[in-house]
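A further point concerns the way the authors explain their paired sequence and structure data. For illustration, here is how one protein appears when written out as sequence plus structure tokens:
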Amino acid sequence: MSLQKMVAAHPQVDDETEGLILAARHAMLCSLFCTSCADACVAEGMDMAQCVRTCLDCADICAATARLAVRRTAQNIDVLRSQLETCITACETCAAECEGHDNPHCQLCAKMCRECADDCRKALPDVK
């Protein structure tokens, strides 16, 4: 199933939204990666409280970003741009935190966060 096709089927979509949809898809995945990483951090034998908090904050922001990005009726461009920028900040913050840990789940989470931030950054020009 294609998210791009779903959004393109919307009666008020007449412009190119591929970059924004890619950012939405990546944000959904990033939310899941961050949630999984936070859960794995809880099981680590050391204090990972800051990483857990950072991952869960990022997961929530990414999930909200994905939902806002696919809403095309009566758009609120300022809010969408702000949400994409917030997602970029959350992802970069989470990536930096996770990169400080050697475990595989944090390394994968950091990579996903960097990719999500890049896609959100690329989508900003599409939001007009």
In short: Residues 41 and 47 are 9 Å apart (CA to CA). The chain is about 75% helix and 0% strand. The helical segments are 3-8, 18-43, 49-70, 77-99, 104-123. The first helix runs from residue 3 to 8.
